[in-house]
Request: fold
Amino acid sequence: MSEHIVSIDQGTTSTRAIVFNRAGQPVGSSQREHEQIFPHAGWVEHDPKEIWANTRVVIEGALADAGLTASDIRAVGITNQRETAVVWDRSSGEPVYNAIVWQDTRTQPIVDEVAGGHGHQRFHAKTGLPLATYFSASKITWILDNVEWVRQRAEAGDLAFGTMDTWLLWNLTGGVHGGVHATDVTNASRTLLVDLESMDWDPELLSAFRVPSSLLPDIRRSSGQFGVIAAGETLAGIPVAGILGDQQAATFGQAAFAAGESKNTYGTGNFLILNTGDERVVSTRGLLTTPAYQLAGGPVVWALEGSIAVTGSLIQWLRDNLGLISSAAEVESLAASVEGSGGAYLVPAFSGLFAPYWRSDARGVIVGLTRYITKAHIARAALEATAFQTREVLDAMNSDSGAPLVELKVDGGMTANNLLMQFQADIVGIPVVRPKVPETTALGAAYAAGLATNLWSGLEELRSLWGEESRFVPQMSDLDRDEHMKMWRKAVSKSLDWVD
Reply:
């Protein structure tokens, strides 16, 4: 019987397909970037049709790279950039507008209106989230209010909404010819439209954001049969059996299945997740309460999450906007050419600050500049900013959980940067552990699909597949660590109150 899983990893900057074998090892992959669309300052969009086209291409590419055919594939898993919102016509399959990306800040007036006199914690107890432009709800409202005739068509039941997992699932399973309109608990919970108690769309929240319920997908468990890929597709007849938002997928891929286990993913942004088991912990330090996963027949497993908007995308900014490097890989050697940042600090609040601040008025700053500073110091400051932001989230996580982490499991593209990983260990003061398979986001979606189709027997078998590749041990003194953090917080203070 077929013993491979295809994982579709639809990320903020690219879409990948990776084929995993029964040992949890990648045996074939393909990746394609998509355009980042910036119509105005603070606006970030993607073309959903480009992403769907890229998805079909990378599925074919991954199979070819693995030397396999559809008959070798047992199931498909999907993981995706969360919160990014797309609305499309059910009868034509055409998006009514570009997808509005999670980084987009245009909807701040809508968020402020919903908050009203209640403040931005108005629905925190119900949703586990603050009112912020980060989440999907205000993006839906903006599309309904600003694209001609869209609200009328939505209220007539002619349109569908989804995060990117839903968009891909609908197209893979037939689109206008009976495509499945569904999502999983991890993605649904990031819309600001779900009551965590019932794990269902909430009438009060729908009313607050003026979103018709007819737009919304079914909410299902993360592991289970979502639908079968339609005839005409490369993987026709293969079930889609797992869906997880990218950060929850990375947690699952890191085998952080039990309360107290965690991971930190270094991607476009950084996302630290701590599994809290069956306890839905309410944060007092700016973290999010979110489902970690839900398996077939089981309850929701909960987590605390610290979300950082800009880390890997900061390196992309150095490359594309400033031209300091010609490829992301060059940043390590450039940063390593100097011993430190020379007193410069870079706060990448391009979309405001996420956890633990949640300040939409913040904007990016570089402080501490002197004539001594070179592009190498700026590159170093950019890497160090990732580590500083992670330290602040980790401090909040330790405070909320009451059980400080003793090591930090990491994954994602930036973890290949040894300079960053060592500085991360130095600044958090605990070992940083890199796994043998760094692309745990795709692996987690594969695990969810494989569990649903009995490729793996259960969580303990998946745990046995995890292996450590490298361990970075702190070398910085407590005095130096405290001084770095004091200066970082001073730099953050300069980024605040920039937008009135």
